[in-house]
Amino acid sequence: MIASLDYSYEISINENNPIPLEWIIEFSDPIMGHKYNNIDHIRLKFIGRDCGNGMNNFGLVSSQHDRKFIWADSHYNLNADAWGRGACTTYPDENAVDCNGKLIKRVWNTNFDSHI
Questions:
Q1: How far apart, in whole angstroms, are the C-alpha atoms of residue 13 and residue 19?
Q2: What percentage of the chain has pLDDT greater than the value 90?
Q3: 5-21: burial string, b at 16+ Cβ within 10 Å, e else
Q4: How far apart are the C-alpha atoms of 113 and 109, rounded to whole Å?
Q5: Cα(57)–Cα(32) distance, rounded to whole angstroms?
Q6: Which residues of 96-105 are buried (b: 16+ CB within 10 A; e: fewer)?
Q7: Which candidate in 1, 52, 76, 90 could, as Cys together with 72 as Cys, close a disulfide (CB 3.0–4.6 Å)?
Q8: In this predicted structure, what is the pLDDT of residue 47?
Q9: What is the pLDDT of residue 116?
Q10: Residue 23 Cα distances to 15, 49, 70, 101, angstroms
Q11: Closest Cα partner for 69 from 61, 56, 77, 81?
């Protein structure tokens, strides 16, 4: 998909069957919106979903949509709270993050048998 309002995308299963509510829809990446205040937008229509303009209608979806599904337990399984989140759900967009002036220190552990 191209992040542009010049294009619209209609998505369904087998021509007009609804997308299951537990399926996760993700669009773009929030980093550009957080760091550079350059939020991507796209016009989406997911059959069986409300993308912001009523059920089964085209809606404007931003790159800042809900992402509380992006995590997993120690066995890399999503728990029940993660399913059904993402874009075109009743969950609100993520809160803005001010990235200006923040230094993020990352510690990488290449020894997978121990903990940091």
A1: 6
A2: 9
A3: eeeeeeeeeeeeeeeee
A4: 10
A5: 27
A6: eeeeeeeeee
A7: 76
A8: 92
A9: 45
A10: 17, 11, 13, 36
A11: 81
CA 108, CA 116: separation in Å to the nearest integer?
9
- Two structure tokens written together for 45: 């229509």
Domain ranges of the chain: 1-116
- The amino acid occupying position 104 is I
Task: Please give the model's pTM, rounded to 2 decimal places.
Answer: 0.64
Of the candidates 2, 5, 24, which has an alpha carbon nearest to the alpha carbon of residue 88? 24
Q: Are 87 and 26 in contact (CB under 8 A)?
A: yes
